Amino acid sequence: MHPLSSSRIMTTVLLTLLSFAITSPASGEPPQRWQPGDPAQVLPGLIPAPAEIPGIERWQAMPLPISSYVKSIKFSPNGKSFALGDGRNVRIHDTNSMQLTGVLVGHSGNVTALDWSPDGQWLASAATDNTIRLWQADGVPGPVLKGHTDTVTGVAWQPQGALFASTSLDGTIRFWQSDGSPGQIIRGHESPVRVLDWHPDGKQLAAGDEKQQVRIWTVDGQPGPVLNGHVGPITAVRYSPDGKWLASGSSGVVAGDAPQSVAPAVRLWSPDGKAGPVMQGHSRQINALAWSPDSRQLVSAAEDRSALIWNVDGTRAGRVEEDDETTNLIFAIDWHPVHNYFIVGGRFVVRYLTLNGQIGPSKLIRPRGSKLMFVDWNPLEDKIAVAGRDGTIDIWSSDFEVRQTIEAFRTPVTCVRWSPDGKQLASMAYHALKVWNTSGENIFGFPLKGSVSRDLAWTAEGQHLAAVTSSGGQVFLFDEEEEIQNFTLHNAQIHGVSFSPDGTQLATVGGDSHLRLHELKDDATRRTPGAVLEVPDGDVDAVQFSPDGKWIATGHSTTARLWHPDGTAGPVIPGFAAAVLRLDWRPDGRAFATASWDASVKVWKTDGSLLHELPPHSAPCWGVSFSPDGKKVVTCGWDGMLRVIDVESGAVLAVAVYVADTKTMEAPHDERRQSPLSFNRAGQLLSGDKSILESRLVYLVQQPSGAMKILKPSEFFSQAPGADLKTTGNDE
User: Fold this and answer.
1) 683-708 pLDDT, tens per residue?
2) Angstrom distance (rounded) from CA 64 to CA 75
3) For the CA atoms of 75, 77, 79, 81, what is the dihedral angle to 10 degrees?
4) Which sign does the torsion angle of CA 209, 215, 216, 219 carry?
């Protein structure tokens, strides 16, 4: 497409920088100088490198709504409180009110597992940073336990409290004394170990691994029975409180060249390994199990959005129903130690449930409207476009101080891509495509057939634009004036589309597990079929040619793959815990970045080796894009976070968080609004609506004991003197 003439361009939108100091020094007094914090001493969290503030110890800001998928949750032994993992933090809430009472800050990776000591005096947390941390019940940090060489996936205290055990993707089980000193190491599993639980007598534990096996181990590390029968990695193991049964669940899917898939089962075993009832009723991976306090019932939750309750004889007692079908996916369960209800963690939500449905006076849930769907860095200018679920497109400067908002659609924006010359921005929402100039003026738009719009691609000259949707298997081709062609290329939904830099090839991928290459003649409208490549690991979610045209990168259910333009296979990159959703090549074509449903952000060389692992999101990462010089990337995700990251060091340089507008948090979908907030290193607002801070943000200040005090923004800044913004590090 050719840039439109200046006569058709609207006057550039004037942007106002909404920087402000929440408190000001007394008249005539010089402002305190807030210096950037020592990088070795800063607390991980929302604000990158928090400034050193006179009179305040180490501090950090945290969004108050849950910002992640809650995959670990645990009642305290007396049931009066519960802990949950929220990204890198552990949150403590009062059971009766669900009010936030404590935040444990220290992990540099996402929290994966939690368990309280039997006396309730200690909490152990495990994370993707390969560590386990011990915390006192009042939030005072204890030892940091190192030894695992990969993500720690499980942690469980022995019921007698003398020791606890941990599992890891490194394939080991490690024992630790209650003071954190290391004990013996079990290396008997032949694959990553994901889950474990202790028998109530403390004499044995069960652990499940990725090779479909549950293994029993004695307290002194000796092997016991090996329990076979599951299909797919073991995803949950739980002993009944009376010790008579061990329950286990699995994914029901075995990856490989010929993927195997069956209906997953919950299996019961006696403590000596004899097989008991087999319970089938879920259609997708089982995520979690929990026993009732009387050991008479077991609840299971799965990826099929169902929670089923079973009797110990294998019969089904019922199905738990929830009101909101959009948030009833459950990742973690724990039954209250006294009462007949259980707590569940899901997508940004915590609820109490019984067989009769949701109970309790309140629910802990992130208000809707803060998911980010796509991000793209302008190839020539300091402009970053981000797609929002509320139908808006924000165009930011790379320091997130300046923002322009385009009211683009009434439905979620699913994709934004700058033209090669950086002068136009293409965008898609459900059933529609629109192109804008850099002033935010809509140049043209077209309806799209099919359902959810998935991806866009420009030709290198910017003369043509391809769009794909999630149904019909069609590619739509546009020029500046009209839709010039559409054609069906897949027998299932198409997820991604990309033109080669020289314009001679078009690549498409989709839900039929195929990468299809098409040879283009003269212009994009003349094509002949090329290679059709089938891959073994499910849907193909992303595709992109490298800038030099030497490689095609694709994203899959558990891998990323490289291909030569003639269709021959290159390196395969395994190890993703979930689908690779987005790809972006470094401008020199020698490396590319992946954004995954498992929340990770990684940069890879073209030989398939890992170049950099960047800070992950706390929920699925849906966007990654390199800066024009290739030294930085911008990422976004369903946690509402937008970050600019230095690729070499991994340092977060700028951050904005999207939260739901307070007035429309429960409104119908097309009326929900999201409010982006960006901050300087002193925790002050650079851009956004300061009126929503009190309900959307808390500040954490470290006390002499190491515990975190929770303050509202007004409380935090009332304790801080005025700030000279030029000394907060933003001008470096």
Assistant:
1) 888 888 888 888 889 999 999 999 99
2) 20
3) -60
4) negative
* Kind of pairing between the strands at 330-335 and 342-346: antiparallel
Query: How far is 73 from 86, CA to CA, in rounded Å?
Result: 10
Indicate the pairing of strand 35-36 with strand 357-365: unpaired
Would you say residue 375 has pLDDT above 50? yes
260: Cβ–Cβ under 8 A, 6 or more apart, which residues? 231, 232, 253, 254
Q: Give just the sign of the alpha carbon dihedral 506, 507, 508, 514.
A: positive
User: Within its chain, how far is the Cα of 69 from the centroid?
Assistant: 7
DSSP string, 598-658: TS-EEEEETTS-EEEEEPPPSS-EEEEEE-TTSSEEEEEETTSEEEEEETTT--EEEEEEE
Tokens of 534: 């089938």
What pLDDT score does 174 carry?
Answer: 97
Question: What is the bridge-based pairing of β-strands 152-157 and 163-168?
Answer: antiparallel
Which tokens is 432 given?
């529609």
Compute the mean pLDDT over every residue in the chain, rounded to the nearest whole number.
Answer: 86
Q: Hey, which of 6-20, 350-364, 430-444 has the most confident mean pLDDT?
A: 430-444
Question: Which residues are 677's β-sheet partners?
Answer: 657
pLDDT at 268 > cutoff 50: yes
d(CA 163, CA 224) in angstroms, rounded, equals 20
Place of tokens 């073994």: 536
What's the distance, Cα to Cα, between the start and end of the chain in Å?
Answer: 38
Q: How far is CA 82 from the centre of its chain?
A: 22
Which secondary structure element, helix H or strand E, spans residue 547, and what is its range? none
Helix spans in 74-180 (H): none
pTM value is: 0.84
Task: Report how far residue 76's alpha carbon sits from residue 97's, in angstroms, rounded to the nearest whole number.
Answer: 15
Six-digit token string for 409:
């659609």
Task: Give me 376's structure tokens.
Answer: 């793209």
Half-sphere exposure of 349 (CA within 13 A, CB side): 19
Q: Pick 46 or 32 by higher pLDDT.
A: 46
Q: What is the pLDDT of residues 392-407, one digit of tens each?
A: 999 999 999 999 999 9
Q: Note the maximum CA span of the chain.
A: 82
